[in-house]
Amino acid sequence: MLSLYDLTVEQKTAPVGLDEKQPAFSWKLKSERQDVLQKSYRLTVSDETGTVWDSGEVQSEQSTFVCYAGAALKACTEYVWTVEVSDGVETARAESRFETGLLDGRAFEGYADWITHPLPAEEASSPVFTKIFCVEKEVKRARLYATALGLYEAELNGQKLDDTFFAPGWTNYKKRLQYQTYPVALTHGVNELCFTLGRGWYCGKLGFDPQPNNYGDRTALLAMLCVEYADGSTDVIGTSETWQVSTGMIRFSEIYDGETQDTTAKEQPLGMAIRYEHGFDSLIGQENEPVRCLMRLNAQQSFVTPKGELVYDFGQNLTGWTEVQISGKPGQILTLHHAESLDENGNFYTGNLSFAKATDTYTLNGEKQALRPHFTFHGFRYLWVEGLDEGQEAVFTACHLSTDLKQSGSFECSHKLINRLQQNIQWSQRDNYLDVPTDCPQRSERLGWTGDATAYSPTAAFNENILPFMKKWLRDLYSEQTPAIGMPQVVPNIMGVGQTGAAFWGDVATVLPWTLYQVYGDKRVLSDQFDSMKIWVDFITAQCGENGLWQTGFQYGDWLGLDAEVNALNEPRKGATEDYFAANACYLWSLQIVVDTAKLLGKKEDEAKYRALREKVLAAFRAEYVTATGRLVCETQTAMVLALHLGLVEEKHRARIAAMLKTNIDAHKTHLVTGFIGTPYACLALSDNGMHELAGKLLLQEQNPSWLYEVKMGATTIWERWDSILPDGSFNPANMNSLNHYAYGSIGNWLYTRLAGLELLEPGYKQFSVKPQFIRGIEWVKLRYDSVYGPIRVEWSCRNKQIRVEVEVPANTTALVTLPEKDETVELGSGVYTYEYAAETNLHLSKYSLEMPLRILMEHPIGKPMLSQYAPEMAGNRMLEYVIDQPITALLSYAPQIQPLFEAIIGAMNSAEE
Ligand code: BGC
Question: Out of 254, 340, 464, 720, which one is annotated catalytic?
Answer without folding.
Answer: 720
